[in-house]
Amino acid sequence: MTLQGTYDSLLQKNKKAIIYQMIQAQLGWDFETYMPKKGGQQRSMQFATLAADIHKLMTDPKIGELINNIKTDPDYSSLSDIQKRNLYLVEKEYNRQTKLPADLVEEIAKHQVIAIETWKEAKAAKNYAMFKPELKKSLDLQKKRAHYLDPDKHPYDVLLDIYEPNMTSAMITRLFNELKEGLVPLIKKIQSAPNQPDTSFLSRSCPISIQETLATDLSNVVHYDLDCGRIDTTEHPFTTGYYQDVRITTHYYENEFDNALFSTMHEAGHAIYEQNLDEAFRYQPLGQAASLGLHESQSRFFENIIGRSPEFWEYYLPRFKELTGDIFADIDAQFFIHAINHVKPSKIRVTADEVTYSLHVIIRFEIERDLSEGKITVEELPTIWNQKYKDYLGVDIEDDSEGVMQDTHWAAGLFGYFPTYALGNIYNAMQLHVIRKELPNYDDLVRTGNLKPILEWLTKKVHQPANLYDPADLMQQITNEPINTKYFIEYCTNKYSKLYAF
Amino acid sequence: MTLQGTYDSLLQKNKKAIIYQMIQAQLGWDFETYMPKKGGQQRSMQFATLAADIHKLMTDPKIGELINNIKTDPDYSSLSDIQKRNLYLVEKEYNRQTKLPADLVEEIAKHQVIAIETWKEAKAAKNYAMFKPELKKSLDLQKKRAHYLDPDKHPYDVLLDIYEPNMTSAMITRLFNELKEGLVPLIKKIQSAPNQPDTSFLSRSCPISIQETLATDLSNVVHYDLDCGRIDTTEHPFTTGYYQDVRITTHYYENEFDNALFSTMHEAGHAIYEQNLDEAFRYQPLGQAASLGLHESQSRFFENIIGRSPEFWEYYLPRFKELTGDIFADIDAQFFIHAINHVKPSKIRVTADEVTYSLHVIIRFEIERDLSEGKITVEELPTIWNQKYKDYLGVDIEDDSEGVMQDTHWAAGLFGYFPTYALGNIYNAMQLHVIRKELPNYDDLVRTGNLKPILEWLTKKVHQPANLYDPADLMQQITNEPINTKYFIEYCTNKYSKLYAF
In this complex, which of B38, B227, B229 lies closest to A228 when CB atoms are compared? Predict the structure, then answer.
């Protein structure tokens, strides 16, 4: 076979796995949204069958052969950079899938179900002791997994790489230490500022039908294409899909309109990324986001950098008032903007504001890193957790349900995942800095709701490259700088010193 | 391998195909209900991949070997009747799938897309000449298909067998001739009766939210289990799913509340059949309805025999009035019942009433049969069609869009499918006759909305046997009679002579 023929065969095999993953995602969406109550047993048969087939497709020894044939072909260097990147991505995934012994994969899958069930019970019972043994086992299994994947690397770096390719623990430690140094004093300043917002109007009753209209309207405003997507409701909002069918969910609470509003903007940001990947890469390994951190940079760009900016509400508040009738007629722009930017250290990550959010993530990262290095034990976890919440956020954790057991990630075996949430903030502040240079009228664009040029910039620089580069390389290309926290700290300092007038 | 081991392997292989078909059905449901406008291209990749894999699973030569090993095993006779039936069904499907040359399968699939597109255009343009060549090709391809499947059988019988196993053209000709003889004079009597209903209230405005409540309420009343199902909307209502996840669709028109009401009852009847198949047969070849005719017997049982009965509305009208507020407060039971049983010969099958409906189907059957035997040609079709509508229903067809081009079936290559619609009426009238003997208080049960004993009877006699028998054998078992039209004609005569007072 010619080199091109071998390459095409390899991509053809991979394409089939991608199509099965799309089907898997679609069934997952239905599971979360519309599946009848008792449909679970049948759905799990479908999931199991698909998962086994995808695993078989991705670990087919023929893939190893094709990769080897390409790499040893005398004309290898004639491949384009795009072809080489596709090859690299297939090989990386093939190695990841084939290096793990089948019994470990099975053990992890089985343990995950038990650990999540136990976590739910333990959380409800506020009983960490109940969860502890399962958490310990989750951690041990992930360490084992990391060892199989690469025995020579720091186990936490191996896990990080799954979510944020080639990111290291050392790098994150440096970035997060800078963030702490910048944010902890800023939060103290904000808290002690006399000018605190009145947020009481946020709990005014706002009919769900109005919130639905708002969600659709905001999707249109930010150019989330609903001809290639849709909005449904779930308890935990999420985004799923691929290119021309990328769906988001939100949730509507009558007395928390801001919840649906910002979760819609957040998920729309994720969806926009997927919808705008380079069409040429569809059905190729390249046709996916560069990393979870990059993904989060886009969701938080639309949720926070645009969605909570004073400029955006200059444009959108009149429209918001029009769509909500008389409910918020008495609320002026400054009042509204201050309220949706209320900074208040709290115990729960998912409802944290833009400034304190990163500290929640930093706490989880430091614990994960120290656990993986054996510096701390699962025994000590609640004590360490509570101390860090006191030190960084100044809050007292009263029970472990709102402390160390608040998130499902560790039960699900997701170690190395949390840092991507805060990396999103770091990345998008860096992007914003460049956008402001390249679109000098950025503020005016936001002020007039003309987000198209901004979307086009993001599409060209962030979305279109898809998975052509690892995140650090992509960020370097976009910004001409290594990853750094300077712009996020600056962004927060500027925005909040104005809002809180200090 | 032991005989049992071989049998288990065969069923295991088949089970995988069943699970893929469930996934296919789920993606089809999403395609019709919630898929974003531009999701079609990606969905078609998913469909094509699944279809190819299912075909591969079902034509795997290993299946042929396993079947052969079982049938030649000296202990073959030790298999239970259930095991033998499963074997029979797998073998029948295996033969059907492997006998067709791949290029014919492909040609049929490709032509179907073209023929449906052309049919849509020709129908819109009221131009039969445009559709004619595609229709001719559809027919030729289906004749070819029948020849490959069984060159020794009447081609129409081969096609019929796909939808109504082992039904023959001769048998249907006999049954449908009886129906014509019984129904044509009955319809004339009904038409000439002085006592015609006033149906004007059927077009009163009824808000869609109320119609939704009615649909859910009626589903509960007929015991369509919404914990294992759901109701959504599509232009053409349908039912899809399997055992614990069987979904129906309906459509709501503000000025035709009866449309949603009876389509919901109809589809709920289909869904109830699927939900009540014997649990022991799930994931086995046996775990499906016996035929499309039997399926239609259940949908029409709930739509017509229960749903349009005077007894049911004695029970349900007060509740209907309660749920619809003041809208129908002035309509009394007799008035209401007469209106929903308005018999009026018309041009369009899908909106036909209970009595004239069968004649629409008979016309299509006679044409299909005569076409397949070469007694008539595609050229003559409109003339023959229009003449039959004049003779059987007394209506004048003005253009071919409302005549020979009204249904999509022929464009889709569905020859041999139409008769199952009228067989449903024949079957369920026979079932009703036995139910009335075995549940002497049948009328009282309906009158009090206590449908549970009736559902239990249907479940035991019709649903639970699933695909254990061919339809004629199942009907013989249930009724102790060969299939006959006596009870349907009696049912219509009794019901409508009372309603129209003749």
Answer: B38
